[in-house]
Every structure is written in C-alpha cells, then in structure tokens.
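Note on ligand handling. Small-molecule inputs were canonicalized before submission; formal charges were left as drawn, and no protonation-state enumeration was performed. Where a ligand contained multiple stereocentres, the stereochemistry in the source SMILES was retained. For adenosine-5'-triphosphate, this procedure yielded the string shown in the input block below.
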Amino acid sequence: MSPLALVVGSFRAEWLKLTRRPAVWILGLILLFGVFTIGYAFVWLGILLIERSSQGSGGPPSGAIAESLRAGLLPGAMIAQVIPLLGTLGGPIGLILGALTIGGEYSWGTLKTILTQRPGRLALIAGKLLALAPLLALFSGGALLVGLLGSLIAAAIQGASVAPPSALDLLKGVGAGWLILAAWTAFGVALATLFRSAALAIGLGLIYSLVLETAVSGVAFLIEQVNTARRFLLGANAGALASYFGGSDSTIAPECATLILCVYLALFVAITALVIRRRDVV
Amino acid sequence: MPKQQAEPYIVTRDLTKRYGNRAAVEGISLTIGRGEVYGFLGPNGAGKTTTLRMLLGLIRPTSGEATVLGAAPGDPAGLARVGALVESPAFYPYLSGRHNLRVLARYTGVPDGRVAAVLATVDLADRADDKFSTYSLGMKQRLGVAGALLKDPALLILDEPTNGLDPRGMADMRDLIRRLGQGDRTILLSSHLLGEIEQICDRACVIQEGRLIAEDSVEALRGPGALLVRAAPLDHAARLARDLPGVGGVTVADGALRLAVAPERAAAINAALVGAGVAVSEIRPIQDSLEAVFLHLTEDADGAGAGPGQEGGR
Ligand SMILES: Nc1ncnc2c1ncn2[C@@H]1O[C@H](COP(=O)(O)OP(=O)(O)OP(=O)(O)O)[C@@H](O)[C@H]1O
Ligand SMILES: [Mg+2]
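Structure output:
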C-alpha cells in the first residue's frame, strides 16, 4: 500500500469514528443552537421589548435601534449576523472538538490499537486532521444555513425582502468560519497531544482564551508593546476576521488576520505531527 | 529443532529499554523463525509487554535493535503482516464491536468482509452490534484478538490474551491460538501462566527483571519431571533418595521431598524407600513441572549461577 493509500484509509477510519461519536454531534448542535438563539431568537426578543417600552415613551432613538436590529435579521444580512458568532462560539467549540478527537485516543488507549494495525504515525495524524476539515466545513456551512433559516422566518414575519447574499459572499463566509474553527480545533488537537488528555487540554485552552487573551486585551490600551503583541494572538485574530464580516472595524486587517490564522493552523499541525511521531506510545 | 532454522521472523539484538535508572528490558537477544509458536514467559513486571511494544514500534528501544518480518518495528510494510494485541484490548467505547473492527479494517486496508469473518472466528458474531462499552471483560478480550486477526497475519503477537477470561473462555482461547498456530503462521505469546505456554508453544524463553534467563524447547525447559514424596522420617528418606538411580536432585519443601526424576520411576523409588524402612504416605508426579522449573530459574537469577532447568535443557 502506498503512503497515499494509508492516509486515505486513515481518513476513512477517522471519518467513521467522528461521524458516529455522539459528542461530535452534540458540539455541532450546540453551535447551531447558539447561532439561532443568540443571532436570531434573542435579537427578535430584544426588538419586541424595545418596541413595547417605546410605545409608552415614544422616543425616536429606540425606534432607530429596533429598525437596525430588524434589518440585521434579514437574509441579506445573514453573514454579518452569523460569522461574528462563529468568532465567539467557534473558539470553545473547536477547542473542545480538537481536544476530544485526540484526547480520546490517549484515554481509551486506542492509539496503540491503531498504530499496531498499520498506518504509521504520520499517516494516522494526517488522516485525522483531514477528516476534521470537512466536518468543520459542515459546522461552518451549517451555521450559515441556520442563519438562512432564521432570517427567512424573520423576513416572512416582517414581510421584507428574502433575497440572500451572493454566492461568493456566502462562500467567503463559510471559508472564514471554517478557518476560525480550524485554527481553534488545531489548537485543541495540539494541546491534547502534548498533555495526552482532553480534559487538561480543554481547561488550559479555555484559560488561555478567556483569561490570558482577555488580560492582554485589557492592558493593551495602556502599553504599546502589549498592544503590538496582542495583534498576533489567536483569539484576537479570530475575532478580527469574524467582526470584519460583521461590518465593524478592527485594528487588524482581515487579510492579516487570515494569514495569521493560517500560520497558527500550520504551527499546531506541525507540533502535533512532531510529537506523535517521536513519542513513545504506551 | 528444524523450525528454528527457518527464515527468521523476529530478530532482536541486545534490545534494551530503560526508564530513568531502571531497565525494563535489558539486553534481550532472540531469534524466532517462521512457523514457530513461541512463548514469552515471565512474572509481573518482567518486561514482556515492554519487549512486545518495542517489536511493534510503539516505543523506541534505548539501545539494541529489532527486525520484524525483515522491516524495522512499526514500519507499515512489516506491520501489514503482523497482528497484535498488546496488554488490555483498547477500543472506542461508543462504537459497536463491528464498527470498531471496521475502523481498524480501514486503517489496515483490508476489505470490510474480513470483519464478519474474524467476529465469527472469536465467536462474537451475536453480540457484534452492541456497544463496546457494554462488553464483558472476556468479550473485550475476544474483540481484541479479532482485531489482531483482521489482516490474517503471518505473525501474531498476543500479550496475555487469556487475561480476565473464565476457565471455559481460557480453554476456548487456547484452542483458538493452537489452531491459529498450525501451518505457517508464527505466534509470539506472552504469559505469566506456565501451563498456558506448555499447552500452546513449541519453544519458550523465560525473562525476569528484563533479562532473558532461559530459552529452549518447552520439553527441555520442563526438564525430566519430578516426584513429590511424603515420607517419615523425612531426613532419612532424603539421604536415601539422593543415592537412588535416576534422581537428579532432592529438595525439601513443606514437609515433603521433591525429587527431580522421571515420574515413571515412582514405583521403583517407593519400593526402595519402603525396603529401607521408610514409611511412604504419598508419592505422585508434580503436575506443574514447568512451574517448578520456572521457580528454580527465577530463584537462581536472584542469586546467580545456572539453574537446574538450564542444566537439564542443554
Ligand atoms: N512507561 C513506563 N514508565 C516507567 N516504567 C515503565 C513503563 N512501562 C513499563 N515500565 C516498567 O518496566 C517494567 C516491565 O514492565 P512490563 O509492563 O513490560 O512488564 P510485564 O512483563 O508485561 O508484566 P505483566 O505481566 O504485569 O504485564 C516494570 O517494572 C514497569 O514498571
Ligand atoms: Mg504485560
């Protein structure tokens, strides 16, 4: 069997494992549910509350806010509504997914079972990462599909235009969502490989993203060097790319954020491959 | 032993694995030929699993070399013809037995059809669609063996495959391994159960504390056999027994004599002792003869010097 055939076999095996694992679908559903509730249901609720309270006071500013919120719910604005959510939800979801995929192999001892079968370590990890790629495209595409659904409902209620964004914009959106998810997933994979454990990887990954990056952003206003360093952080770039699609300005240009996320993706993949290849499996 | 001269399937030279200061395996050199059913015998912590892991490329030796089927350990080219179950069987708990094997079949590149075949071989077909997490220990063990058989391997490496099985399951598993070992297939079976090695293997080695302390055919390792004699007065009986023809050695344990002698000599020995005025209350062959040899070997390894098994075997 050629090396390519080994990678293909490993990909097919990993795909079977991923698609039949309940935890994977739970993560996917949480992402879609999050997009729908935060991106659509909560916003709709907000509009209703604003309009109800403004019936009493009748001020024009609250009317304007409600109008802009209503516009955001329409199909034409779905990318701006969904992708920023992938920027926030995508981090933990990707991290957990990546950590579970490799952490399980360590905690169940299945790494040894697979390696004694055939594939060799690099083909094994290549197949694993290649199988995660289309899954994340499904996640990202699914999030936009949920956005489409939510916005069509909103358009029907409001009797507004149902014209969706152009195919190119949709593709860009799916691509950006994928890249954000992929960088975080690779982070989870690399951490779980290093620590041979999903739990520790998820914990440390969350500490990094919630505590460390938040702290750095907090002092970035005060110290110029910290601000420069912040521009290279994983979460900052994922957030910048996402908010670009949301139409808000970021200090990091979208091209720059895309490039840095790609570098992170490559770096995490390289770390994982190196460690898997070299380390004893017991 | 003609089989030993056949094409070597496993060759190791001074294989050593150290963890910190402790050597888990130290300087093991083995040659196992095609078609052999080879036993790897040692107590807990002897280094059996560590050696097998090195042969499969799971861990790297600290020093020394190994070749498996002409390839470096862990090389996909060699692994294509090796089936292995190392330590406890490890599978995906959320998948059924059948799907677990399908995953392995994809990694290995064998057609899905093999899955049903190996499930039947280990007699697990009727529970194949239950989740692995619901399996009993014995079923998990059998699934592990099924996974090792997927490739219809030329070399089968099994690490204590009867672990956790009940007596019936053990007997079935041993039958299966014996059947698998017929023909050209080579089997490397590790065990701390001497009876198991004795029942299944042609040749075996004994390792303790990471060192190889004996290697020979099972018959030679077993030695000429032994008799247990209960007699009074014991010290008189021991003195007499030492001078009887055919008796290799006499040891006293638990108020009885252990004579290294072919069990067929029991009647003659009984007659001689009774004739000399010794009251003999029991005389019988010691069943677990390899065990006795093994105990001697391992005691000697603590002290240094050749054991009776080695003397008897060479
Ligand atoms: N990863 C490891 N780190 C440190 N020590 C280890 C490691 N793996 C094995 N050892 C040590 O190496 C020695 C041999 O262990 P091994 O598992 O090979 O024994 P074994 O012969 O398979 O025993 P058992 O019959 O109990 O399975 C033991 O002392 C064990 O503690
Ligand atoms: Mg062991």
